[in-house]
From TrEMBL:
Main localisation: other
Lineage: Eukaryota, Metazoa, Chordata, Craniata, Vertebrata
Any single GO BP term: myofibril assembly
Gene Ontology terms: cellular component: actin cytoskeleton; centrosome; cytoplasm; focal adhesion; nucleus
Pfam short name (any one): Gelsolin
Protein name: FLII actin remodeling protein
Keywords from the UniProt entry: Actin-binding, Activator, Cell junction, Cytoplasm, Cytoskeleton, Nucleus, Repeat, Transcription, Transcription regulation
Function: Is a regulator of actin polymerization, required for proper myofibril organization and regulation of the length of sarcomeric thin filaments. It also plays a role in the assembly of cardiomyocyte cell adhesion complexes. Regulates cytoskeletal rearrangements involved in cytokinesis and cell migration, by inhibiting Rac1-dependent paxillin phosphorylation. May play a role as coactivator in transcriptional activation by hormone-activated nuclear receptors (NR) and acts in cooperation with NCOA2 and CARM1. Involved in estrogen hormone signaling.
Native species: Microcebus murinus
Localization (cell): Cell junction, Focal adhesion; Cytoplasm, Cytoskeleton, Microtubule organizing center, Centrosome; Nucleus
Coiled-coil ranges per UniProt: none
Amino acid sequence: MPPVPQLQSLLDTRCVYILDCWSDVFIWLGRKSPRLVRAAALKLGQELCAMLHRPRHAAVSRSLEGTEAQVFKAKFKNWDDVLTVDYTRNAEAVLQGPGLSGKVKRDAEKKDQMKADLTALFLPRQPPMALAEAEQLMEEWNEDLDGMEGFVLEGKKFARLPEEEFGHFYTQDCYVFLCRYWVPVEYEEEEKKDEEKAEGKGDMTAAEVEEKQPEEDFQCIVYFWQGREASNMGWLTFTFSLQKKFESLFPGKLEVVRMTQQQENPKFLSHFKRKFIIHRGKRKVVQSALQPSLYQIRTNGSALCTRCIQINTDSSFLNSEFCFILKVPFESEDNQGIVYAWVGRASDPDEAKLAEDILNTMFDASYSKQVINEGEEPENFFWVGIGAQKPYDDDAEYMKHTRLFRCSNEKGYFAVTEKCSDFCQDDLADDDIMLLDNGQEVYMWVGTQTSQVEIKLSLKACQVYIQHMRSKEHERPRRLRLVRKGNEQHAFTRCFHAWSTFRKALA
């Protein structure tokens, strides 16, 4: 019996498909499909081809969306993107009839009807979440948490993470956290109970009532965290090993949430109670033990999104409105030194207290600890550890105005969307245009794979935004700045927490 032809409409540009036709195995790659999924599909296609007895000429072929071979299209019903031509009609009849001229006319009308969504440019900036509200959310989410187990990728398998290392993450590692949450149980309404009593059904003993009440239910969420310098093999290892074990243990009650560094789920962040530290390098690998390390504590839009991230050890990165942690090891002794909490003169008192808490609870006891205010730095260790004293910013006014927009044709038409206030460097999409407003300038950031059409449309959108902000905040007129990827200036990079080199595509 011949196979039933498939429909072209089944193919989603964000997905990858394998079509097995016995004598041929086709792998169709959507243009917007993840690179990791493509690699997995190619490997799976080879294994699938070897599983069954096939003719000698059987082969695995791949087709990128828009470049499909005719032999692949033939497997689908009515897939014909060739312009039909009626050779029985002359040129005059074609021009007068509904043929080519009609198609050209329809295309022209469709072009005129192309829409652009610029709504995000006219919406007000998202206000920061109040500390009390953020603390209430943290408390509620942690009350629902029944237990949390951590795992870290060591070699080719995941090992259990010691509890004392919870809150410490490394940029070259992958972590898995299994969280078990209590799910609230809905009990019968009082009205229904009253009706039952009126009908004579309410005369039950206390033991019977307790027996009839449903037991507490639970849900499991697995958070997969990947450092920005970690290989994607960690995710593949998780999906083919640990995830399958969890699914067998908690059938129907498991949800997997994948996250990358600085793009964490707020609920996940809440479990560390603002003590979320990201170190450079790899866990258990000595990273120049005698070299000082500098960390910046920063809150993006909400206390839920507070992180302490290692940055370049350079005094020019200090800022009077933030708190920093400086770890200075002693050259003469192993695993000993001093850790400073540097409190900027204009920093938030709540963040200053948090810096002291991190200093006391999250670093090795072999290090002595000291809290210092800006201007009171000890010359012998602090400036020697951080390097020569350089000029640094004495304010962070830009934090009150910073907004990041993405301009893209991804939806089939030009649209501008705003990133949440907790954005990071990896939100800069290389194939799109990004608009960054810091309250003084509007930067039009151009990626290396951006199309000319997007550049022209984004420039118009940027001009519209500047004009709109001039009418809303006439006392803060914005200037337009063009910046290309890799040539960002300090006024641009300081809007991002822990700006570093751009992440490279990893296998």
